[in-house]
Structure formats: structure tokens, C-alpha cells
Amino acid sequence: MGKTFETLVPALREWIAKQPVFFVATAPLADDGHVNCSPKGSDSFRILNEREVAYLDLTGSGVETIAHVQENERIVIMFCAFEGPPKIVRIHGRGDIILPTDPEFAQLSPLFPSHAGARAIIRVKATRISDSCGFTVPFMDYVKHRETLDRWTDKKSPEELADYRKLKNETSIDGIPGYPSPS
């Protein structure tokens, strides 16, 4: 049965490190706003300490997580086992957005593989860490990380990526400010 943890204990850290995919969920403050849940991969997740984690946010067609976290900081990250014993781990917390122009980005970015499409680091300070059974999660075979996004961003110049972000990432689907355009 499910447990809560004060910290990311070593057994959780080891298990999380083996998971090739995780999910991020956020929601806007507005009652009629859209809740967002995004799958993530590409070796983009890191545990910073016992109660703090981060992931490398890559350029995409939406900006819901950045917009929601900037608006209200609420975020949950979920891992689930697709092989081995059933398990789900959730890290609820308060997030902040670290942009490439922020000094902290230079400190944290070496923790992650290099990606031309990196647009931010999402850091989460855990307010609740829990696990649960995952008895209904199916078994699935991991083959490899997709390289499609990297191939797409590698073909773009920094200016082309900035133009894309201006077009697709300035606001969320609900009109909440998202990724800032360069001045």
C-alpha cells in the first residue's frame, strides 16, 4: 500500500533513476483553465537533493507547464513502473522556472545532456513525496529515447528557435504568459 516520505530516500532515488519516462502535471488558477499533463523523457530528470528535483524543459509546441508554474508554482511529477514490480511515485511541490539567461541555469545545465532545444530548467521543491501500488499499469518494453525533437532542433539556428518560441510559446492555451521573448 502507498506510503509518504519526508525525503527522497535512497531506494526511491535508485528506482527513479531507472525510469525512462515521467509525467508532469500542472493547472492554472482559473476554474475554466485547462489542466495539463505532459510526458517527458530524454534523460532529462535529476534529483538535486533529498527534497529538490529538476528537469530540463525542451522546446515544444506548447508552454503549459512554464505558464502554470509561473502563475501559481503548483506541480506534480509522476513516475510509474512499466517493468518489474508495480510502483508509482509522485513528487508534489512548488516549482520555479530557470531560464537560460538566469545565472542558475549555467550552474544546473551541466547536470543534463546537451540539447539545442533546451529552453528552461524546471526546479521543484517537494512538498509531498509518495508512492502507490500501480497494480493496473501495464507492462511495456522500453526500446530507446526518441531522437525526433533533437533532430528538429539541431537543424534550427538559435534565431529560428527564438522565432518558434515567440510564435508557439509566449502564452499558454488559456492565454497565460509563458516563455518570454528576447528583448
3D architecture notes:
- With 183 residues, this protein is of the alpha+beta class.
- The chain has one domain (3-168): Electron Transport, Fmn-binding Protein, Chain A (Pnp Oxidase, Chain A, Roll), CATH 2.30.110.10.
- The chain has five helices and eight strands, in the order βαββββαββαβαα.
- Strands 1, 2, 3, 4, 5, 6, 7 and 8 form an eight-stranded antiparallel β-sheet that branches.
- The chain is globular.
Please supply descriptive tags for the structure shown above:
single chain; 183 residues; alpha+beta; Pnp Oxidase, Chain A; 8 strands
What is the fold's blueprint, element by element?
Layout: E1 3-5, H1 10-17, E2 22-26, E3 36-40, E4 45-49, E5 52-58, H2 64-72, E6 74-80, E7 88-98, H3 103-108, E8 118-132, H4 148-154, H5 158-168
Antiparallel strand pairs: 1-8, 2-3, 2-6, 4-5, 5-8, 6-7, 7-8
| Count, helices | 5
What is the residue-averaged pLDDT? 95
Q: What structural class results from the helix and strand content?
A: alpha+beta
Number of domains: 1
Describe the global form: globular
The biggest sheet amounts to:
8 strands, antiparallel
Poorly predicted runs of 5 or more residues = none
- CATH architectural designation: Roll
The number of E-state strands comes to 8
CATH superfamily: Electron Transport, Fmn-binding Protein, Chain A
User: Span from first to last CA?
Assistant: 51 Å
Strand content: 25-35%
CATH topology: Pnp Oxidase, Chain A
Order of helices and strands: EHEEEEHEEHEHH
For the record, the CATH class is Mainly Beta
User: What value does the Rg take, in angstroms?
Assistant: 17 Å
Question: What is the helical fraction, as a range of percent?
Answer: 10-25%
